[in-house]
Amino acid sequence: MENKKRKAGGQALIEGVLMMADNGYALSVRKQDGTIVTESKPFTKLVKRNKKLNFFPLRGIITFIETLKIGFESLNRSADIYYETDTNNKNGLKNFFETVITFILAIIIGLALFLFLPIQIVQFLKIENQFQFNLLIGLIRFIFFIVYLLIISQIKDIKRIFMYHGAEHKTVFAYENGDDLTVENTKKYSTKHPRCGTSFLFITLAFAIIFYSLVDTVVFSVFKITNTPMNRFLNHIIFLPIVATISYELLFLSEKFSKNIFIKLLIYPGLLFQYITTKEPTDDMLEVSIASLKESLKFNSEDGNA
Fold first, then answer.
1. pLDDT tens-digit profile of 142-181?
2. In what order do the strands lie in the sheet with 24-30?
3. Domain edges within the chain
4. Is the pTM of this model over 0.85?
5. Residue 161's closest CA among 171, 169, 153?
């Protein structure tokens, strides 16, 4: 197989890694007793199954929703496996529900912190120019995001997830470069990958700053809507799918034209973010990541060897 045709991706889980290949995905989790549990499912993106849906802007939002769904389900399943959640394991159930509640709270706090609070802060400044108003909101969100990442990266459990994130990137790099999937081969690669979801987050944040600056100006001026923090918050929620869709397309283009100097500059800040969101993994974490990728590649009739 030519190296340029090799492509995989995934995400870090609780004590594990999710890996996606063309025709399926797999997750591997290291249980508390040290054993690795691997599960897999066949999967083909809807836009590949139905070519009529493979166009802008529909393909972006469909892929985004599908990826989120698989990611949430896999995160939930990894907690289930690691904490050995079943009706006979009360401690496992307790830890599992604590993880779910923490995750839900994190989403609520995230919405408040990144969407509503910046609007409330800038509102006090009484800036009349709508474009400047929204630009400042975007910059505050950007700063909040960096500070948020720095803070959570110090939490022990999050730190381990970021280490598994690094393991995922190293393993994908080894595969895409045609190496046999072994711990020794994967260790030499970087934890920073240009196709990472962190890059998608950066592109989304950067695009949102410009997009909301323009859209809010038009919406509040043309439709004569009262300019309040809550109205701005609702407006940003309504247009969030559009922001995510266009950001996905920008990420798609950045991958397609990765050698272009402008594209390299576009994705570079996303790589810098990965100094926070990825950490050097241990050998046993690489073993988990390799197990996951090898299992997912079986759907492509591959074994992970060059």
1. 888 888 888 888 888 889 999 999 999 999 999 999 999 9
2. 9-13, 16-20, 24-30, 36-42
3. 3-300
4. no
5. 153
